[in-house]
Amino acid sequence: MVQFWKMHGLGNDFIVVDNRNGAISEAEMPGLARLLCERHLSVGADGLLLLSNSAGADLKMLVFNADGSEAEMCGNGIRCFAKYCYENGIVREKELAVETLAGVKQVWLNVENEAVKAVKVDMGSAEWERSKIPMQGQGTCINEDLRVDKENYKVTCLSMGNPHCVIFIENVDECPVEYVGPLVENHEAFPNRTNVEFVQVLGKNELKVRVWERGCGETLACGTGACAAAVAANRLGKVGNKVKVHLAGGDLQVDIAQNVFMTGPTEKVFEGKLF
User: Fold this and answer.
1) In which band, very low, low, confident or very high, does the pLDDT at 215 lie, cut at 50, 70 and 90?
2) Looking at the structure, do residues 32 and 59 belong to the same domain, yes or no?
3) Contact 253, 241 (CB under 8 A)
4) Statement: the pTM of the whole predicted model exceeds 0.85
């Protein structure tokens, strides 16, 4: 039997399971993610979040995409994870340290009437070196050409704990994300595949973003993707240090300093059991 919460952050949805007892083995995790995330035959979600014990932080979050691949970090997911842990009494502090494959992330909870309404996350700093993304080649990839299906796209690539390829375009609504997204995700330049952000600049403090997520396809929102878009736009001088990012599922606030801070809502949809 698996007890779970179904949750979402701006429509980017997850199944959250407490696995501190180790009932789900590492070998079982990818298959369980594929099974539970199937929308037509199971619960349905963009990803599976597993709560584990941590030796160096308050909690540990493991992230599996809908296709069973493991992700280093998930911005919308960590907000849902924090809400799950607080509202289930696993932790009662309003500031937490969460271990991820991308390192330990600090999160701050906005609590009203014992319910977590929003979460702020210290996403760390962006990594620009190709070897850290990872991406083939040497140095950085800032506004450089990437050949995709006989066309050149100007791309800026970075890691926010997971790989991102940011493409600035005039109108995201007219962009063939479902066609270009998987071609870039699986491009030979990215040995571990990549998330892809299609970004429209609306003003000095405002972006509109569509995200093709590695292992999931286009999602209603992506926390690390919103941060990657904002940081790339800031580096290119397109926006300032405080950026509102409009995604299909809603808005995230991204503040850029030495580290990148993301703030956004989180919601519980329902809870249940699988036998």
Assistant:
1) very high
2) yes
3) no
4) yes
For every residue of 110-173, DSSP letters joined together read EEETTEEEEEEEE----B-SGGGTT-SSSS--SSEEEEETTEEEEEEEEESSSEEEEEE-S-GG
Helices (H) and strands (E) in the chain, counts: 4, 18
One domain for residues 211 and 269: no
In angstroms, the CA 120 to CA 100 distance is 16
Are residues 178 and 95 part of one domain? Answer: no
Structure-token pair, residue 48: 């599976």
- Please measure the distance between the N-terminal and C-terminal CA atoms of the chain and give it in whole angstroms: 4
Residues 110 and 142 in one domain: no
Burial 24-58 (b: 16+ CB within 10 A, else e): beeeebbebbbbbbeeeeebebbbbbbbeebeebb
Beta-bridge partners for 59:
98
- In single-letter form, the type of residue at position 238 comes to K
> Catalytic residue positions?
74, 222
C-alpha 7/C-alpha 13 separation (Å) is 6
How far is 20 from 100, CA to CA, in rounded Å? 15
- For a pLDDT cut of 70, what percent of the chain falls above it? 100
The residues that bridge with 273 in the sheet, in sequence order, are: 3
Q: What is the pairing mode between strands 144-148 and 250-256?
A: unpaired
Query: Which structural domain, as residue segments, surrounds residue 62?
Result: 2-123+263-274
